[in-house]
Amino acid sequence: MGNISEKIRYVGVNDLQKVIFEGMWPLPFGVSYNSYLVVDEKVALIDTAEAGFAREYMENIRREIGDRKVDYLVVNHMEPDHSSLISMIREAWPEVRIVGNAKTVPMIKGYHGISDNIHVVKEGDSISLGSSTLTFYMAPMVHWPETMVTYFNEEKTLFSGDAFGTFGALDGGITDSCCRLYGCTDVAENTFEAFREEMRRYYSNIVGKFGQTVQAALKKLSGLEISRICSTHGPVWENHAADVVSYYDRLSRYDADNGVCIVYASMYGNTAKAAKALASELEKRGIDYAVHNLCTENVSYAYRDVFKYNTLVVGAPTYNNDIFPPAYNFMYGVSARLVKNRNFAAFGSFTWAGASVKLLNEMASKLGFKLLSEGLSFPQAYSPEKCDMSALADRIMQERG
Ligand code: FEO
Question: 273 in ligand 1 pocket by Cβ < 6 Å?
Answer without folding.
Answer: no
